[in-house]
Specification:
- By secondary structure, the chain is mainly β.
- It is about 10% helix and about 35% strand.
- It has one helix and 19 strands.
- The strands form six sheets. Strands 5-6-10-9 form a four-stranded antiparallel sheet, with no helix packed on it. Strands 8-7-11-12 form a four-stranded antiparallel sheet, with no helix packed on it. A four-stranded antiparallel sheet has the order 16-15-18-19, with no helix packed on it.
- A hairpin with a 4-residue loop joins strand 7 and strand 8.
């Protein structure tokens, strides 16, 4: 079989059987089947072209499905660009065990089915075949089909029980792994955190926690988390965001105000301490005045006075009981007459 997307697909029938069973694949683009028979004398080949009957551009388009909240699935599509006004579409789902069922609850737009809601996913297996065909009174409607793996169409719920515990230098953010419809390993998940417009991606094997650097005093912060599929780096298929969790101060400017207050108080404290030290130094300097030294007339380098310097003593100081006072008077010598 020559598939437009997968290329050649070859199968060899079992002995004495004249049929082949191919795995599920999309056929809405058409395929070419080639049967080759080898005999002892020659080789015979026959081609069978399988086409999608109906008017070109009438098939459903923009088809997609996603599983959400573990137990629910929505599928949506849009009418083909050339579909008539009276077109009606129908969805059929066949699992890997070949069990088939029609959509139990359609979503309509102006009377035309454009979606399907399922609240019972017990019949889904690891991969499933989806077929959307249509009917019209005016023209034939082409079908659309697709094979989807269940693990690749699930959108995970937000993490539960988000908590924040803060220390003076950081805050520890913890959460619980969300539930999934199929069994997955921790490494199959990845998380995206948004903290004050800052986006942070955390791998699933990080013990469901993240340490956010944040010094006290810290302003008010909010954190929200969503879950994605780590197995597809190009399209993680992010789920819905969790509710924001707040931590930090209620006042957004509290951190800045506290810093300013600390700076002002520190400046005032330093000024007071410096003033006390200066005042103490001046007081100590006034108590211990320098003692004047005795004037040495003999050794000082300046001319000495010819008069004797007498120390003044208070009256009665240093006198004995029988102290004789001698008065010396200088008398000019009279000239000798001749």
């Amino acid at each position: 079989m020559l598939h437009p997307d997968k290329g050649p697909i070859s199968l060899k029938p079992w002995k004495k059987e004249c049929r082949c069973v191919f795995p599920d694949c999309a056929l809405h683009q058409g395929v070419t089947l080639t049967v080759t028979v080898n005999t002892s004398q020659t080789q015979v080949s026959e081609k069978l072209v399988y086409t999608n009957p109906g008017g070109e551009g009438t098939a459903a388009q923009n088809f997609s499905c996603f599983i959400y909240n573990v137990h629910f699935m929505n599928c949506t599509w849009a009418p083909g660009r050339a579909a008539p006004d009276d077109v009606q579409y129908f969805l059929y789902i066949r699992d890997s065990k070949k069990r088939e069922r029609e959509c139990p609850r359609y979503v309509s737009d102006s009377g035309t089915h454009v979606g399907c809601h399922l609240d019972d996913l017990s019949g889904l297996t690891s991969y499933n075949y989806f077929l959307v065909n249509g009917t019209s009174q005016t023209t034939g409607i082409q079908f659309f089909d697709s094979v989807l793996r269940s693990k690749q169409i699930e959108r995970y719920s937000p993490p539960a029980n988000i908590s924040v515990q803060c220390k003076p230098s950081s805050c520890l953010i913890r959460w619980e792994r969300p539930s999934a419809h199929f069994r997955l390993d921790d490494r199959d998940f990845q998380y995206e955190l948004v903290i004050q417009r800052q986006r942070i991606e955390v791998p699933g094997d990080s013990q469901n926690q993240y340490i956010f650097p944040s010094l006290e005093p810290r302003p008010k912060h909010t954190v929200k988390i969503r879950t994605g599929d780590a197995r597809d780096a190009q399209d993680p298929r992010w789920g819905a965001w969790s509710r924001p969790v707040e931590f930090g101060s209620e006042d957004p400017d509290a951190g800045v105000v506290h810093v300013y207050v600390l700076i002002v108080l520190g400046t005032l404290g330093c000024a007071l301490a410096l003033g006390c030290l200066v005042k103490r130094f001046l007081r100590r300097h006034s108590l211990f005045q320098p003692v004047p030294r005795i004037k040495d007339k003999l050794n000082d380098n300046h001319p000495t006075d010819l008069q004797d310097v007498w120390e003044e003593f208070p009256a009665g100081a240093g006198k004995a009981e029988h102290e004789e006072v001698v008065t010396v008077q200088e008398v000019d010598r009279a000239p000798v007459s001749g």
